[in-house]
Amino acid sequence: MRVFATLPEFLENRLGFCHFVAIFLDDDEYVEETTFAVKNTLKILRAKSTYQVTEHIIKLSKESSFEAGQFVCDLIRNGVSAIFGPESPENNEIIQSVAASLQIPYFQNSWNPQEEAATSVFNLRPNSDALSRALAALVRENDWKTYTVMYENEDSLLRLRETLKQRKPNDLSIAFICLGSGPDYRTVLKQIKKTLDTKFILDCKADRILDIFRQAKEVGLLKDYHSYILTDLDAHSLDWSEFNEVVSNISSIRLMDHESDAAKNIGKLWRIDPKRIKTRMALIYDAVSVFITAFRDLSQKEQLQIKPLDCDRSEVTEYGTKMYEVIKKPSKQSKPLLSGYLTGPVLFDQHGQRRNLILQIVERSKPVDGAFRLTGYWNSALPKNISYTVTSAQREKELQKEIQTKNFKVVSK
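Structure (tokenized):
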């Protein structure tokens, strides 16, 4: 099942009505997170504006893209100004087609391998090229000559393609191991251990990471000479406390800084710990913020009318093309209507993909306390480099301290 939520069905101001449509997964473990983000984003919208908001949640079958198209067309007949979601590709294609043909802004917040989408599509999640380049830079900076990639599905290979391009002729081979569906990964992990490799990229959903690490520990793949790079943007937000005694080097990439002023502010307004705000929740908030800010900016120049449309006719929105331009080229004086953005500056290129993207490099602290610390930044404008916040002198000092705490056994013949 899927959840369709109008965000809102009626959004009133002095210029008239504004209608939203948001689409969320209802048949996975994340529906509570996305629903929570929607409702609390609307609360902030109500508090910071004169808009009157009423939301509706409607379920639609995951397997039926035809039903998805019909449902969206029914909503559009009542007047819709933007569409949000869904996450999976099954229904994305038909909804994207409807949005493009009627020139309705369509916001995605999930990974989409199609980097050149329709003009009306804006994807807030970093695309495969950006993630791949960031991982490639991290591998290069760590001087990994050989490593094993543990991956979940074929999408992993797309995310890692730039990493693979970094391989030089004299580098040793890179191994690819599919983890399988689980939940028992011990057989695969034992095979990996036999290779004697010590460096790994783990590409899987965040909710599988801890189980994999528990089993990796059992088979002896979490020693102090093992290093891991985790690709999921929420890996750092997991509860790592049970691995406090593990001293393996574990790094990851994140899009949202939970220590930022924006995150702390939203955490306070949502009444939750900022560390509990997952990436998908932050992207929902940012997507609504991008659109309502653009709607406000455009409505200050001209009166906008959100009129009913018909999927079977050639009529399109009157504001669509202008709205795209406002979103892709916002005024320097424009400020977000909501409380800033959670995932950094939200700017789009001509294909509706994030540009000037900044990802944060984080690693588990040593001595280990279960937390991740910021160690550097990757900027899409300078894709081959990582700007480190931890100096070489600091690294050397930490290494010396780590050596001092170790016990060495001396064996003589």
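Residues 193 and 221 are 7 Å apart (CA to CA). Residues 279-299 form the longest helix (21 residues).
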